[in-house]
Amino acid sequence: MHQTRQPRGRMALIALGSVALLLLSLPALTAAQAQPGDRPQTRLNPFRQLGPELPTPNALRTASGAPGPGYWQQKVDYDMAVELDEERRRISGVETIVYHNNSPDPLSYLWVQLDQNRRARDSISQKTSPGRLSDTMSVRALERLHDDFDGGFKIEHVRDGAGKDLPHTVVETMMRIDLPRALEPGGRFAFEIKWWYNVNDRSRQGGRSGYDHY
Description:
four-stranded antiparallel sheet; alpha+beta; 4 helices
């Protein structure tokens, strides 16, 4: 009996087509076997709160985003006498601060920002900034690794309007001042801070603040 042989090229095309059909059918079989409960919920609830896009209006914020009738903001007045000592490279000052409590809550303490404390020897920013060594380093880079600059605010006193010392606690770049009595809504409290700090050399300590050599 005579058998007809298929050309090799045609047989290869038939085999390739069979493999392609098998691959195309796999996603359909997988989808058919998957249970509805196993599918991730990708559709958003049409009745969800539109908080991220359109915050709900309230007494502090209207629907347009403008301040509402209950909006409030604290107010602080500063009266500062500051001196620059170029020879010692130091800034010192005495300031009187009047804090106005416009919030609806009584305040038992106040916070004061002390940004220069990031340059203090024992600051967390100094401890968490690792030194970097390379095969070749300049003299200035080596000086930075062994820098002993004494930065940060030196607080000499914190007193109330009557000249009495106020208890205070410095935590890194923040200072908490405990008030002798709660500052009621609508009230104000005056206190005085005397301070000084050494001005850093930008060429050694870096940063945007500091003095430059011209």
